[in-house]
Write a structure and sequence with these properties.
The structure holds two protein chains of two kinds. Chain A is an all-beta fold. Chain A has no helices and 13 strands. Chain B is mainly β. Helix content of chain B is 0%, strand content 50%. Classes of the chains: A mainly beta, B mainly beta. At the A-B interface, strand 5, strand 6, strand 10, strand 11 and strand 12 of A face strand 4, strand 5 and strand 9 of B.
Chain lengths: 117, 113
């Protein structure tokens, strides 16, 4: 079974500083994708960034980037120049592809990020 | 604009009642999902459907039922057999090709009164 672990229930960062959220996963699959989702107080889930397991290059979306270490099964999210609007619950998620179809997402337990002014 | 709509936003259930949460999408997505979220916790999969007229149990299906009669719709019924139904429920949809994540609805907050 696939599992996703986020070992930091809560993190805080000063506005304009950089913070890294950790995520590890366990899988025996070779064809998979990893995602970070953001859930602000509105509770609307928003896709932040995705990473394909076959790609060695780390994904980047503006101030958000990942450090994907496939051998270590680690997928951390770095937020640069943190803004007050980044305050949210962040979920790491995993999805594998098998028999011609993508399977359901498996989520970690989340990291609550607080941004301090 | 395409999207996924959940209704109602808030729902109250009396003990012993069944209630149905609505989820509709106009994204032409093949797959739809229901997740439950408890305070401070991650998302747990209740049911999912990859095609019309077919659905599969997730990790916590007991006390819930679903149907998928149309591609656009995937309603979730919380039955009286669900002993602790108070939670936030999220519906999502997705294509099933490589690289796709989910599009989520805005959720339904269910409270037992």
């Amino acid at each position: 079974a696939q599992t996703v672990t986020q070992s930091q229930p809560e993190m805080s960062v000063q506005e304009a500083e950089t913070v890294t959220l950790s995520c590890t996963y366990d899988t025996s699959e070779s064809d998979y994708y990893l995602f970070w989702y953001k859930q602000p107080p509105s509770r609307q889930m928003i896709l932040v960034i995705r990473q394909e397991a076959y790609k060695q290059q780390n994904a980047t979306e503006n101030r958000f980037s990942v450090n994907f270490q496939k051998a270590a099964k680690s997928f951390s999210l770095k937020i640069s120049d943190s803004q007050l609007g980044d305050a949210a619950m962040y979920f790491c998620a995993y999805r594998f592809f098998s028999s011609g179809s993508a399977r359901q997402l498996t989520f970690g337990s989340g990291t609550q990020l607080t941004v301090l002014p | 604009d395409g999207g996924i709509t959940q209704s109602p936003k808030y729902l109250f259930r009396k003990e012993g009642q069944n209630v149905t949460l609505s989820c509709e999408q106009n994204l032409n997505h093949d797959a739809m999902y229901w997740y439950r979220q408890d305070p401070g916790q991650g998302l747990r999969l209740i049911y999912y459907s990859q095609i019309v007229n077919d659905f599969q149990k997730g990790d916590i299906a007991e006390g819930y039922s679903v149907s998928r009669e149309k591609k656009e719709s995937f309603p979730l019924t919380v039955t009286s057999a669900q002993k602790n139904p108070t939670a936030f429920y999220l519906c999502a949809s997705s294509m099933t090709g490589r690289g796709y994540g989910y599009t989520f609805g805005s959720g339904t907050r269910l409270t037992v009164v």
